[in-house]
C-alpha cells in the first residue's frame, strides 16, 4: 500500500509537469470563466452549470496535487 501511494505521487508529479495537461486545464478554466462572464444574469441555470463545471476542473487539479503531496509525505516518512 505504501509503495502504491509513492508510485501514485510520482505519477501525479509527471502529470503536474506535463505541459499539454497544464494547457488543457488552463484553457478549460479560461473558457468556462469567459462563458460564465458572457451569460445573462437571468440565465441562472446556465450560470450554475458553468460554475459547477469550473469547480470540477479546479477539484481535479487539486486532487492531482494532493496525490503528489501524499506520495512525497509517504516517501519521506514511510507513513
Structure explained in plain terms:
The model has no long low-confidence stretch (mean pLDDT 95). This protein is elongated. It has 79 residues and is an all-alpha fold. Helix 1 packs across helix 3. The chain has three helices and no strands.
Quaternary class: single chain
Tell me the Rg in angstroms: 17 Å
Mean pLDDT across all residues, rounded?
A: 95
Overall shape: elongated
Q: In percent, how much strand structure appears in the residues? A: under 5%
Proportion of helical residues: over 70%
What is the number of strand segments? 0
Runs with pLDDT <50, length 5+?
none
User: Major β-sheet, in short?
Assistant: none
**Contiguous helical run count:** 3
Give the topology, please.
Elements: H1 2-17, H2 19-37, H3 44-77
Short recap of the structure:
This protein is mainly alpha-helical and 79 residues long. It has helices spanning 2-17, 19-37, 44-77. The model has no long low-confidence stretch (mean pLDDT 95).
Amino acid at each position: 500500500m505504501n509503495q502504491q501511494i509513492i508510485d501514485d505521487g510520482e505519477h501525479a508529479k509527471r502529470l503536474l509537469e506535463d505541459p499539454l495537461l497544464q494547457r488543457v486545464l488552463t484553457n478549460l478554466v479560461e473558457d468556462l470563466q469567459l462563458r460564465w462572464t458572457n451569460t445573462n444574469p437571468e440565465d441562472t441555470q446556465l450560470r450554475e452549470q458553468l460554475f459547477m463545471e469550473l469547480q470540477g476542473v479546479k477539484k481535479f487539479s487539486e486532487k492531482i496535487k494532493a496525490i503528489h503531496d501524499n506520495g512525497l509525505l509517504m516517501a519521506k516518512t514511510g507513513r
